[in-house]
Write a structure and sequence with these properties.
Order of helices and strands of chain A: EEEEHEEEHEHHEEE
Number of domains of chain A: 2
Largest interface: A-B, 59 and 58 residues
Oligomer: homodimer
Strand content of chain A: 25-35%
Number of strands of chain A: 11
Radius of gyration of chain A: 20 Å
CATH architecture of the largest domain in chain A: Alpha-Beta Complex
Shape of chain A: elongated
CATH superfamily of the largest domain in chain A: Nucleoside Triphosphate Pyrophosphohydrolase
CATH topology of the largest domain in chain A: Nucleoside Triphosphate Pyrophosphohydrolase
Number of helices of chain A: 4
CATH class of the largest domain in chain A: Alpha Beta
Chain lengths: 239, 239
DNA sequence: CGATTAATGGTCTTCTTGACCATAAAGGGT
DNA sequence: ACCCTTTATGGTCAAGAAGACCATTAATCG
């Protein structure tokens, strides 16, 4: 149909859901809340909430993120619109259309519990188990999206502190892709992408435990990676 | 906020908008309708409409597409969810959240005019001019999405008839990317991607005008292209 | 028939990638 | 203090991929 006027338009509730990810202890973690009310009381779910009347979905997502993590608008926070989920019946109470977002954080604080939720916590994605609503699906889509983002954009730096070593950046890739990478080759490729990372000029160095101190880098201005950092192909060719 | 119950949820109108693209006469065309009613009466717009109470956005998009083009569910029709647009004020009448989709068609029929719209037509993207609402933005996003789809997925075959020559496939890439490609190198790369295209066994051939007859291919089973077909980098390196 | 056009197959050179090796520079343990 | 482990960094080498071209084939157009 071409116009907005011919058919009566049903009202829908519109929400945002957030897959907020971070890399912690070599594993991808997601911010989850334990629902305090029916339906799905006691189950873990992605944080989210209703759009306010004058908000865009992006604005609502940033507001929800600030509320959940206690962080106010982080400068340069990457917030990716993931997908919109609109299947009838995805919320047993009413018709809800939800716009899902992915956010990538480095060194986030522990979320403040309370509010509607019984608690809020960072949990490893592998331990997420069965989430409320269709949030398992959303989380799976978010993980796949992030894997692709690391290939084609500089998003990996969002998982790192403002200054980071190439070893830390490589660990982000290894964690998200779940693949070991050759340190020397990764360095060569990362440095070959214009605008991906920029060395911190003041010969700065940092020791993170054992081993030789590493040079520090900052995120570069590039949003798209040319050439992309392709993840190694999985086994199973077509010979 | 963590629950769906604490705050009153405002009702929103939810629509789908469709950027239906096809390659015709060496140019990317988009299906547009001329609005018959205010606002934006007389202006071209993307086809779209309201979700029905029991429809998912995908279902609504397919229904709208069938209504606009007169085509019933095409087998294997590619329908990509593009993005959701939710800025307040994007529709002057009321708060509308719109889920945008991209569809790729080969040899589509002329759309039937009528309905709410004054007329419906295929127009070259370059001649789209200024569309109603925020549809210029949606169309621009759709074009960029399709450019990326050709790199990483087998979506280009959706612009081709069921059996096609590699020359036709290459013209799709050249049109969408707006870049000339070397015929021999394109062939080598396309055939090297497992599952991208499969030769039609019966030594079938087809002549499309002048030149040597070309072998026919069908779309292969691959959804993701490994390795991807990267578009040639634009000028402007960092030497 | 000869010119033109498009498909297809090959070559050649350059670049990229992955696998590895070597060295440097720190910490830990004895 | 000394050796071992760990991580960073630089370099090599061979295999593969990509872009630039050339040659041949097989149609249509004039």
């Amino acid at each position: 149909m071409r116009g907005y006027d011919k058919y009566a338009h049903e009202p829908f509730a519109v929400t945002v859901d957030l897959a907020v990810l971070t890399v912690r202890a070599g594993a991808l973690h997601v911010l989850l809340v334990e629902r305090g009310q029916e339906p799905y009381a006691g189950r873990w779910a992605l944080p989210g909430g209703f759009l306010l009347p004058d908000e865009s979905a992006e604005t609502a997502a940033r507001r929800e993120l600030a509320e959940e993590t206690g962080l106010d608008a982080l400068p340069g926070l990457r917030l990716e619109q993931l997908r919109t989920y609109s299947e009838p019946g995805r919320d047993p109470r009413m018709r809800v259309v939800s716009v899902a977002f992915t956010a990538l954080l480095a060194d986030p604080p522990e979320p403040r519990g309370g509010g509607d939720a019984a608690q809020a916590r960072w949990l490893p994605c592998t331990a997420a188990g069965t989430l409320a609503f269709d949030h398992d699906r959303i989380l799976a889509d978010a993980r796949e999206r992030v894997r692709a983002l690391l290939e084609n954009t500089g998003a990996a730096t969002a998982f790192c502190p403002p200054e980071f070593t190439l070893g830390e950046l490589r660990q982000v890739y290894e964690t998200v892709w779940d693949t070991p990478l050759d340190a020397a080759n990764f360095r060569r490729k990362a440095l070959a992408v214009p605008g991906f990372v920029a060395p911190v000029p003041g010969a700065a160095r940092l020791t993170q435990g054992r081993g030789k101190p590493a040079a520090l880098y900052r995120a570069g201005p590039a949003t798209a990676l040319h050439p992309p950092l392709l993840r190694p192909p999985r086994e199973g060719r077509t010979p």
